[in-house]
Amino acid sequence: MSVKSVSIRIEEEEMLNKISYIADYEGRSVNSQVLILIRQSIKAFEEENGVIDKSISPAYNVKPTRK
Prior knowledge:
Largest sheet: none
Strand content: under 5%
Radius of gyration: 15 Å
Number of strands: 0
Helix content: 55-70%
């Protein structure tokens, strides 16, 4: 499995401080905590919508955007 780096912009005053607090409370780094949240999101999505088949383009397989 290859590992890719992704950067995000996050509001420091609230979101970053809170996710840092949660990560510290759980004994994890912020990076590890974010990975856990991503895995939980993927699992919840797949439970509701079925397993994501990476051979299907998201443009074909995704619900329309909210207006």
